[in-house]
């Protein structure tokens, strides 16, 4: 089918199953956008933003939910406006520095008591090979030596200044006293 020979403004015509609308100001026929739903695109897998079954070069906006069944990869920064929820057993952040504006980091948030929080802590290196500190029934523990610099207080009382050592609860090099403060492991 051909376009009508004497169209009026706003007149529509379908040519080769494509809808057009006439604009008398410009004397042109404009193809009308078609709403697309439920499209499946099958094709080659992609390992870069320039290959695959669908390549978008001008950006894409998604008003609703975007569900991805495979790996999501970004070659540049990813900005999340809103909250970020990560559901899984392991979250790995491969970076050289982590910065947060929060004053507090909460671990074992789902622990219902001290027993459930056992083993929570900070490990340095793979499996804590360079050191770790963890909590066990409300007591911070480490298999490594503590090395303190500066003033040390326990329950608000100064117990040592500068360098001191702690071995199985006995604090040596104290300020005016030697006292057993409990287990320091």
SSE arrangement:
Blueprint: E1 12-15, E2 18-23, E3 28-31, H1 114-117, E4 121-123, E5 132-136, E6 139-141, E7 152-154, E8 157-167, E9 170-174
Short description:
With 185 residues, the chain is mainly beta.
3D architecture notes:
- With 185 residues, the chain is mainly β.
- 2% of the residues lie in helices and 24% in strands.
- It has 1 helix and 9 strands.
- The strands form 3 sheets. Strands 1-2-3 form a 3-stranded antiparallel β-sheet, with no helix packed on it.
- Strand 2 (18-23) and strand 3 form a beta hairpin.
- Mean pLDDT is 77; it is low at 168-174 and 177-181.
Work out the radius of gyration: 33 Å
User: What global shape is seen?
Assistant: elongated
Measured as a percent range, the helix fraction is under 10%
Give the neighbour order of strands across the main sheet: 1-2-3
Oligomeric state of this protein = single chain
Number of strands: 9
List the helices and strands in order.
EEEHEEEEEE
């Amino acid at each position: 089918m051909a376009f009508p020979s004497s169209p009026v403004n706003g007149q529509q015509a379908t040519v080769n199953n494509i809808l057009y609308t006439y604009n008398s100001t410009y004397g042109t026929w404009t193809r009308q956008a078609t709403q697309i739903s439920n499209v499946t695109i099958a094709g080659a897998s992609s390992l870069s933003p320039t290959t695959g079954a669908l390549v978008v070069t001008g950006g894409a906006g998604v008003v609703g939910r975007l569900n991805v069944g495979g790996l999501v990869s970004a070659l540049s920064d990813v900005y999340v406006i809103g909250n970020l929820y990560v559901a899984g057993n392991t979250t790995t952040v491969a970076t050289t520095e982590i910065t947060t504006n929060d004053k507090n980091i909460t671990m074992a948030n789902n622990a219902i008591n001290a027993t459930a929080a056992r083993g929570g802590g900070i490990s340095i290196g793979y499996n804590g090979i360079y050191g770790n500190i963890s909590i066990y029934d409300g007591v911070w523990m480490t298999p490594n030596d503590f090395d303190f610099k500066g003033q040390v207080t326990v329950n608000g009382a100064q117990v040592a200044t500068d360098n001191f050592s702690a071995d199985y609860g006995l604090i040596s090099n104290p300020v005016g006293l030697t006292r057993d403060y409990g287990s320091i492991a």
